[in-house]
Design a protein that fits this description.
3 domains; Helix Hairpins; Rossmann fold; Alpha-Beta Plaits
């Protein structure tokens, strides 16, 4: 018996007790406390003495009350035993604890869908130790999420109330990986309405859905087939280069990470040339590129390259080194 069913049956039993108390009160002309007492001793079959002399109407009423209530009490007791023996209590409190933890998330990510693509996104997030919550509507997939010790919501990501439960107003980004383009478009549209500053990345299958997702509010769209094709070609033409990239992206070697660091106003990097910032000596990592605006990227920047506010530095280094440059850039 599920927790909702248990509460329904408990509420029904309370209503029956109150109804029986009202019945005894009208038939025997006694106060409500005495009539409630009569209802309880009747349904519990403890055999205490009645509060007043029973007339024929009261006796018939008691017979019907016993027939109806005893069966319900038996079913309720069985349900309570099953509820505790099947671990539903532990499951209930685990869900409540998860919902509380999710409600406290801030500047986190939301992953819609725990299919093959979604699980791979989750694994990358786990390796990078970032805050995130998963929304999945298939109960069968929650066993895997429980094993991975992941915060998740069981529900439809297309619904505003589910996204709000995921604290979307305070989220930093959202990734939708559902099976159909229509679902992904609807999630992107709904999410953008709930949070204008949200960074949204969506999967797409059909090429015609790419533009629709952008119009709906996605910042970036990804085709797994296209990415897979590019990777296969790279593995064939330049296998060692691809293995190096995989080593960073997949974080198999956790001593090396690739990150994007944003240069913030009033930081030690803003307004300085790379030579003056002396990142290599101070931090010990490599600046591979600088991304400006949306598509402009400066690869292998020279020493006299000026670092502007909101420049995004693509850097490679250890976790400690990346944490240090983020402090210098005030990207925290």
């Amino acid at each position: 018996m599920k927790i909702k069913q248990l509460f329904i049956w408990l509420a029904l039993m309370v209503l029956i007790l109150i109804g029986a108390a009202i019945g005894y009160s009208l038939i025997l002309d006694i106060n409500f406390l005495d009539s409630l007492y009569m209802s309880v001793i009747t349904i519990s079959t403890v055999g205490y003495k009645e509060v007043t002399e029973m007339n024929n109407a009261a006796k018939w009423f008691t017979i019907v009350f016993i027939i109806v209530s005893v069966g319900m009490v038996g079913f309720l007791v069985k349900g309570i035993i099953n509820f505790f023996s099947e671990g539903d209590v532990r499951k209930f409190w685990r869900i409540k604890k998860m919902e509380k933890n999710i409600s406290e998330l801030n500047n986190h990510y939301i992953i819609c869908g725990a299919g093959e693509t979604g699980i791979n996104v989750i694994k990358q997030f786990q390796k990078r130790n970032v805050d995130y919550v998963v929304i999945e509507n298939d109960p069968e997939k929650t066993d895997v999420l429980n094993e991975m010790n992941i915060l998740y919501l069981l529900g439809d990501a297309n619904k505003e109330e589910v996204l709000q439960k995921a604290n979307i107003e305070k989220a930093k980004g959202l990734i939708t990986t559902l099976a159909t383009d229509a679902e992904n478009v609807f999630i992107v549209l709904t999410s953008r309405q709930l949070n204008q500053d949200l960074h949204i990345i969506s999967r797409f299958h059909d090429k015609t859905a790419e533009r629709k997702l952008i119009l709906a509010g996605a910042n970036k769209v990804v085709s797994p087939d296209e990415i897979g094709g590019k990777k296969m070609a790279q593995l064939m033409i330049s296998p060692q280069v691809q293995l190096f990239v995989d080593n960073i992206i997949d974080a198999k070697n956790m001593s090396i990470n690739m990150e994007e660091v944003i240069v913030k106003k009033d930081s030690d990097l803003a307004g300085k040339k790379l030579r003056e910032a002396d990142i290599s000596n101070k931090v010990g990592l490599i600046v591979l590129a600088i991304r400006r605006e949306e598509e402009r990227i400066v690869f292998n920047p020279k020493a006299d390259e000026l670092l502007n506010v909101e420049d995004r530095l693509i850097v490679v280094g250890s976790r400690e080194q990346i944490a240090k440059i983020k402090e210098l850039a005030l990207d925290i």
